[in-house]
Specification:
344 residues, OB fold (Dihydrolipoamide Acetyltransferase, E2P), 2 domains, five-stranded mixed β-barrel
Amino acid sequence: MSRKPKALAPMEAESVDEIPVGDQWQYEPKWDGFRCLASRDGDCIELQSKSGQPLARYFPDLVAALQTLGAKKFVLDGEIVIPIEGRLSFDDLLLRVHPAASRVNKLAAEHPAMFIVFDLLGDERGRSLLDLDLTERRQRLEKFAARYLKGRDDIRLSPATADLKVAQKWFRTVGNNLDGIIAKRVDLPYQSGNREGMVKIKHLRTCDCVVGGFRYAEKAKVVGSLLLGLYDKQGLLNHVGFTSGFKAADRAALTKRVERLIKPPGFTGRAPGGPSRWSTRRSDEWQPLSPELVVEVEYDHFTGDRFRHGTRLLRWRPDKAPKQCTLDQVVRRGGKTLQLLKRA
C-alpha cells in the first residue's frame, strides 16, 4: 500500500443528539471497546490505537488470531472488545494495559479478546481502499469476511444497515452494553483523521445520587466538584464519582450551602482516595458531608463500581430521599449486544 498503516489516522465521529435520516446514511452499532486499526503484511501484525499508539503487546491473543487468517495482507478498522458471560467488559480491557507481559498473557488466557471489524482499508492484495466510498468498501469487507472470517469467534463482522427502523431498534433494545449508534455517509471515501461523514449517537443515562462530599477548587476556596454516592444493599454509602462544571456565578452560594453540611464520615462504604486507576494527588483532599443533598446527574458509563467519566449535573432533587439513591439504578442489565453479531 502507498500509505503506511502507522501513519493512518482513524476516521472520527461527531456527537449528535438524534440518528440522522436519509438514503446517504449507513447505520452501525457503536461498540464499547478500544478502537483499533489492525494491519498485516506477511508475518508482521500491527495494532494501532485511535491515538496512534501500538496495542499489540497488550493483545497477544488478537495478534495470534490475525496471523491465522488466510489473507496475508490487509488493513482493518474495528473495535477490540472482551466478551464475558454474554456482555462486553470495558474493565477487563483496561486491565490489559499492563507493563508486565506475564500478567497480560494470563489475562489473555482467561478472557480472550474479540476484534469486531467494520471497515476494510486495505485488501489482501495490498491495495489501498481509502479513496473508495463506503458503499464500495462495505461490499468488499463483506466479501473479505465471507472468505476469511467464516465460523470464527475471535474476529467478527460488525452488522450494518441502511434501514433506520433497524438502527432505532438496536438503539432501544440491545441493553446498555451497547455504546450507541454510528451513522456514516455512504457516498464518501474514508475520512482519515476528521469527523466529516460520521456521527455518533450515544446512550445517555440519568441517576439520582447523594452528595457525600466535595472538593474545593485548586485556586480558590469555592466548590470545585461534588462527590457522588449510592447506597448498597448493606445500607452503606459508596463513592461512585463526581460532578463539576458549575457556573462561576453559582459557586459562592453552592459553597455556603455545602459548607453548612460538613460532617464526617460522608461516605460510610467506599470513600474517595482509595487506590484505583482514577486516583490523583488530590484524591484524599475532600470534605465529608451529612448525606442530605440529592442531585440528578447524566452519565455515559457506569463500570468498576463508579461512573467512568465525570457526570453532568441536571438538577437538585429535594423531593428525593437520600436512602432512595441506590446502586440498583446503575446495575448493568443483561447485555444482548453480542446477539447482533452474525457469523460470516
